[in-house]
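Hi there,

I know you've been waiting on this one. I reran it after we fixed the sequence typo, so this is the corrected version. Both the input and the resulting structure follow.
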Amino acid sequence: MTAADTELIYLTIDVWHPDCWTLHVTEAVDAGLLGYDMTIRDGDFADRFRLYRTYGDSRAAVEQLIEAVDDTDLTKDVIILSPSTAPDSRAFGPVTQDILVEFDPAPGMRTAFIDRGFMHYGPSQHENGRERRSLLTISKRDLVYQALEDIEESYDADLDIERFTTTHTPSGMQDLPSDGLSPRQREAFQLARARGYYEYPRNVAAQELADEFGVSRTTFLEHLRKAERELLTGIEFH
């Protein structure tokens, strides 16, 4: 597949699949979950834990959801975290609570998409017994549709495409606009690309990049996330 054949494709996918504790609990409780990526060097830890933000219209609904998460046979432990001070902490509901969930490691939807060349863009949303994922990939349209059909068949899933938008990218992500980046954001993004941070599997960990950049891991990831957000905002999907 040549670069000229590919497009940068952005999808929003609505999914149901069996034996998923997030879908069981959100179907039973009128509250939701946002699932966040965790960049961790220890692969075993990353496979067993996930950070979630619970949200709802009331404290009672959020507490009921956390209790339901803790009670399911598919999860091992729930750790209540300190209240978030992030600007978007209440974007999905007036009451939120961050939790760290330990569960039995098993291939799931996140792995299904990553193994087929998709990158998750933002948190996954779990509500009303369904989950919504925003994805990016550089591929051909027909290959994307084939990959989604394969996921449906392999995972006995029900998958709906809510949004499918593209922009031509003959040289991958090299042509994304960068005028809105600060010098440090641009340097962080260029370093991450050069070292294979955006390859799958990743060729380098965030901590290694941070050490090379001369800042803490948290600061480096903040530079990187702001650069990614600015670059993606500059794309006109059509």
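Quick highlight: Strands lie at 7-16, 32-36, 49-56, 75-80, 95-103, 119-120, 124-127, 130-139, 158-168.

Best,
R. S.
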